[in-house]
């Protein structure tokens, strides 16, 4: 089942002489449950693509469908609501709300929706994230790895169809990086969530089902990893 | 340029809006300070000019000076200039009305004397030779004798002598004695004919007790004889005047021009400058305190914003001294722009204000002066303002600078000072989220997090709220105190005759002449006396009886003693009034059954009960008749008066309410003459005429003319409209300055609140972007920001309003010592404050929010920590 469809998306920053074409007619189709790694040199347009997929940035032209919804036909308000129900975003800089504690940060998309949390789901999530004893801590009392786990928790609390992570391990040491990727992978496999990760780390990319390479705003290769023997 | 300076300057440029707003804050505060200092210097120079106009431009005067003193003054190198006033002598003023000023006093001026004693010519010109004179206008207005330009008059000139041979001067008042033998007389030594060439204003040096109207002639080269002239001189350095006079060893009787020297700051006795300076200092300290509490905020924002930069600097080996210096560089840059502009703005502001208020000021200061109250900027006033401004800015910069230097390099890099947060610091009640949603909860948490920074905004708001309300309370109390006295008068002009109730034919004639004037609409002649009335409980209104009882003045069942203000009015007015209220006129003029009109209304503020009393004394349906008891030695019987009607309207000259514990009783003059014949001598000495007019100023002039023609003094003619106009002028002045102050302080606050809030919002760009990326809608976003505004405003108001009410109460208490005012909660200004606070906070938040919204989410997210 196709969950995400990107059609001929172009993104141009600026105007006239200083215009930068960050994405050039990118098309892409993603199946539910896929784990995709996006790689490419710095400045090639990876983040731009991810943000457009996540609905936090508008393309200059082109279309995007998530679960058959035409994302950019939504008005601002509906887009915000769509985002908090269907998409989980994880950033390199954890972007937590400093005044909210761990639990509140994780629950934020639900709170904004005015929905009650599912205690079981939350507790499971907290223990999987290894944050059970940190629920009342504020972000500035946590290590970088812990903070990133909180932001993953926030991305996952809604059981979103699509989890997008932009260099989630860029600021972490290798041990913490490994943990984070394991977590994302765990949810990808357990809940059949679709996961797209931007990374510079070859070892991470090689764990994905599919690697998309971008250069100069174009997809230059799109290959599936065949893990022969096991599968 | 060293690196610290460069970083400072870059920071200022990068945050252009904030720098600008800070500079505006400095400009506002400086302009207030300058306004105070230049107002004081303007007032001083106005007073000096006024004194010079009135009493002349000199420092030391020698009266009846010997020739030897003149040569000493002439030769002294410390003397700047001198002038002589030759006393020629006295002559009788024919037809003068003022019995205490029977003379003309002739003096001759030189060219220099006219400079020392500037005369204001109303008509014609100044004299140019020994046979020309200028006549002061008060010979007519005060003495009733009219001279015209061109008149030639011959005067028998002499000295005033006592019977035992002393010569009298202008400082000896005229004393009229029964015994003509003892009476002073004029020893005539010459006769001379003069031509009147001009009329001038009353010279200020003529004292009110002086028996001669000063008449001035000209002689530039008078032959001076000992003791026949007064000598006046100015010294080069006024501050050295006492030493100079000591060195001169004068022989004559000399005196200092004390008032002038006082305003020049030389004399220290009863120094009015001291009063001015101390009021000025209090104002300056007040303004500076506010300004510091406001401006310091701006500095602390930029310091904390650049803490990281400073941290990197100190990590790179910058010393704490250098860091502190950078804050002071910032202060310097801001001062260099803000202080001169602020001083200019202040001068401009006060200049325009004085210009607009000039007439208003003059009318209360000195109505018949031509000295203009204009802007006068002294070097000292600017210097004081500049120094005060520098102190303000330095102190504002010192607080954040100290904090900045206290941080360790690592702390600074991590900006821990700003985000020292513990879970309990951001704890909110569960209910907040239930009621206000996550947005309200977040708003409250944000406020709590930024306690330090927000508290400075809250403090600024608090200071302005308190100042705004207290200043408007103060001004409204001051206005109350000047206005209450003159309210509720139903006439425009009054003239107290001082005739001992002799409403004789002459007074009658004058009164009728006045009433025939076109400018007079209505009139009355009224006089009064006091009487007593004893009432049994059954005749007293129950509420009033209980009120008096509650004060402990009587016990239940006692009779109540009250006063009667007994008025009589001229028959014409009385009849007219009867017609107005629809009463039968004949009944009131029946000598056998005299009838009266009664005002029975108490209106005053009761301090023990703390409420306004509006109450009648008599049980009106029962009391149809009163026994007017007049205290007298002869023991006459009380006079019985039937009550024709209880009235609430009154004829002009009589108030519509009565004095405390008394009623007002009115009868016509003819009844007074017959029924009260025995009490002839007990009426007040001042029979008073009251007039209404559409043009009271014109009417006043015309009445004065009639009075003068009839040989009556005009001094007891009062123009209520003029008094009212003066009152209104005082009110205007109080308002202009109070609101000027309030508006400027408010603007400083707005600038400051703007800076704090918008910076705070900017610092949170990333956080906002994040919230939006996880799906906070614009509506939710607005909701959160609005909640923050409300919390802010509420906090400032919760502290500010009670304190402001408290200060209002203190103001009320201190005013109470001088005048009767009532305490009230300053509701209007409180409402305005509440609205203003929310408007300012909301507007700023909306402004910064819109600015943020223009950036898309990504830009927000991209800003790296
Ligand atoms: N807001 C922006 N304004 C102008 N150019 C931008 C903006 N954001 C990104 N770009 C440009 O678009 C291109 C792609 O950027 P990005 O998607 O961030 O690359 P990557 O994430 O692969 O490093 C780059 O050349 C970048 O400079
Ligand atoms: Mg990127």
Please explain how this structure is put together.
The complex is a heterodimer of chains A (231) and B (865). Chain A is an alpha/beta fold. Chain A is built from seven helices and ten strands. In chain A, the strands form two sheets. In chain A, strands 6-7-8-3-9-10 form a six-stranded mixed β-sheet, with helices on both faces. The mean pLDDT of chain A is 85. In chain B, strand 6 (152-161) and strand 7 (167-168) form a beta hairpin. Chain B has 865 residues and is an alpha+beta fold. Chain B folds into four domains: 1-35 and 277-418, no CATH class; 58-256, no CATH class; 421-487 and 722-865, no CATH class; 520-693, no CATH class. Classes of the chains: A alpha/beta (231), B alpha+beta (865). The structure holds adenosine-5'-diphosphate and magnesium ion (MG). Magnesium ion is lined by residues 46-47 of chain A.
Question: What is the fold's blueprint, element by element?
Answer:
The complex is a heterodimer of chains A (231) and B (865).
Chain A: E1 2-13, E2 20-31, E3 35-39, H1 46-54, E4 61-66, E5 69-70, H2 76-86, E6 87-90, H3 102-113, H4 119-128, H5 144-156, E7 162-166, H6 174-190, E8 194-198, H7 202-205, E9 210-215, E10 218-224
Parallel strand pairs in A: 3-8, 3-9, 6-7, 7-8
Antiparallel strand pairs in A: 1-2, 1-4, 4-5, 9-10
Helix pairs in contact in A: 3-5, 5-6
Chain B: H1 3-14, H2 16-55, E1 60-63, H3 67-75, E2 79-92, E3 103-109, H4 111-116, E4 121-124, E5 132-136, H5 138-141, E6 152-161, E7 167-168, E8 185-200, E9 212-218, E10 229-235, H6 241-248, E11 253-256, H7 258-263, H8 272-305, H9 307-315, H10 320-365, H11 379-406, H12 409-414, H13 430-449, H14 451-483, E12 493-496, H15 505-515, E13 520-535, H16 542-550, E14 560-569, H17 571-580, E15 595-599, E16 602-606, E17 611-615, E18 625-628, E19 639-646, E20 662-668, H18 669-675, E21 688-693, H19 696-709, E22 717-719, H20 720-763, H21 765-773, H22 778-816, H23 827-854, H24 857-862
Parallel strand pairs in B: 3-9, 5-8, 14-20, 15-19
Antiparallel strand pairs in B: 1-10, 1-11, 2-3, 2-10, 4-8, 5-9, 6-7, 6-8, 12-21, 12-22, 13-14, 13-21, 15-20, 16-17, 18-19
Bound molecules: adenosine-5'-diphosphate and magnesium ion.
